[in-house]
Amino acid sequence: QDADILQWDSAIYFVEEEEGVMNVDVIRMGLMKETISVDYATEDASAKAGERYEAVSGTLTFEPGCVVKTVAIPLIDNDRWDTTLEFKIRLTNPQNCELGRYLYLSRVKVIDGDYFPSSTYAKEFDRYGVTDTAFQEAGISGLQLLWEYITLNLSSPGIKLKSAGVLLIDFLQNLYFLLTTYIVQYAADNVLGDAKPEELLIPGSKDQTLLFLAAAYLLPFVVLNVLDVWKAQQRIAEESRGNLQRSIFRKFLNFDEISRASVSSSELGLSIIQDADDIVSSGFMNVFELLKQLGKLLVSLYFIQAENPEALLPTIAVAVAIALFILLNYETSSQMREEVSERQARIIDVAQEGSAKIGLIGDYKVRPLMEERLTHRISDLNEASVPLSTTQVTNDYFPSWLSNLLVAGYLAYGGEAVIDGSIQIGTFLATVNIFKGISDTFKDIFTASLELSKATGPIVKITALLNKQTNLRAQKRINRRRRQVTKQERTPERLAELRRATGQRYGTDGIPIRLEGVGFAYPGAQTSIADATLSVGQGSLVAVCGPRRGGKSTLIKLLGQVVDPTQGEIFIPSYLRILHVGANPVVLDGSIWRNLTIGSINFWRDPEAETQRAMRICERLGFNSRFMTLLRDTRQQFLDGEDGEEHAWARTLSISDQMLVHLARALVYNPEILVMNRPTSQLPEAIADEVFFMLREFVDNRGIALPPESAAKRRPRTAFISFARMAGVLNSDVVWV
What we know:
It is found in: Membrane. By secondary structure, this protein is an alpha/beta fold. Helix content is 56%, strand content 14%.
């Protein structure tokens, strides 16, 4: 009971990569009379040691009276763009002390300051902004952005090495094409022609020479087959696409409110599913195909120059004609594809709205109106799709026409050359084979070049998306300030003073929560809160009251760190975890256990006991027998890590049931600071009364369904609640109006 407690001073830390080092603190709570120690170590998460930070580990020893120790974690700064990645820091092996219930584990977010896909155009981005129209004003094309993305993707060590292997295999395939052409030429001109037997590869034997040529033709093909199987197993496209999709989603999760409001769910979905795939498949991976075909063209031109130079000029003329056609049609094709993509997104918008608001649509009898909207948008899509399809047919046939004309012309010209004896039959046949190969190569180069246009629109869109504003720097500033003030409040002298003044066992529990000159105004709106200066001790149930539209919800958001003050500051000790619970219930896809344990499961050390506690909370909240049976029946499956994505249980939930899941999740999480907006507004009175009683217990017992005898070792629980019923206000310790 008298053992001191060691834990990190924050549940999460923020650092920018260019800072070079992140200093994190381990704080001590207790009487501080003994020498104690603890081990610490970093752990990889999305950020990897050696790439984003340097792994550190060691032991911290606290002498009597020592309240804090600092761990320095070196960061690795580079010019490569990445989303905000994070790693973990963990405390283990406490000696002569205990670890905090939750903050033995914490996370460090590393904020990347580079532009996506690179900082090559940083000056232009700074001047014009990062939007579709800004790129046009700055003279930055989709192809330029695509090139920067390709460079970025190749900077990934795994992708770079595998890509080099693919290019080598493609080069060997082109050499094989040249080899087989020479084999055919040699067989026709020498073995089957007039060459003397002693001049053959195997002197004196045409049969053995033919067998040797057959082996030389076949064996490299076997090797290339094996290499192609290896190439297909490298998962370059899958890894590249997955990296980009994760980056889009991570970035979205860190958007500020303005950025988040500017991106619809359909746009986000299309960006992750379709745009990311187009950028990788039609952009990055397509470059390999383009380089392969260009290599094949070069070896073909080499053969023509060496064996039949008269045919070189028309071949180059066809190549120039195709290049000009690509230049003239590239931008048009790209714009057509982007228009089709935008109209597809509009159809998804209607479908999502219909799914999400089916109740309202049915109540107001507007199903025909929604169907009409969808029909109009389908018509718009069809109008954009037909010209694109027509253009694609023209694009497909143009290189084929030129290539076939080239082959037909050479058949007439080259045939006469064979007749008059100026070239040998083998050279003629090999050149026809080369021209046929060039015909296919021209078409493939043309197709691959136009295929790039499928990636230019998406890369412009994704570049704008991945450079939108986040709230990370604001969170870093607030987090650093909270940690700084907390450190000032936790000097040995101040902690002793707080113990005497508050009677708390731990002086740190006596540090008050303060609002100092807090003001807030939404962009373009009048001030919602002005110069709020308030203070309350930890371990209080605070009711937030006021007239309608009087700023209650805004104050709740400020306390819950959903929005940041536009003036003044809110001080809550940095080691206290804050949870904001909105007024509208949210039920996640997946099992009921996933819904109840999200967030809290990361800190569990005894899953068996924690799941039992979660079930007791649900039972007290009044979950019906069907849900309690479901919890019992699926608990072991959840503990075994076999919890599925089943969410049929949630389809028939009433609003009240959804609210109970919403509240149970918060009480299972057990934050030190619980901030709730109208938690009982959608509950019947009997259940609302039980919620009031449980909130009272949450504060008094420092958590729900936890042993009362260990309450003194837990941090005080403080609740800020905007009540919809007077009974909740009367149940409170403090009322803020």
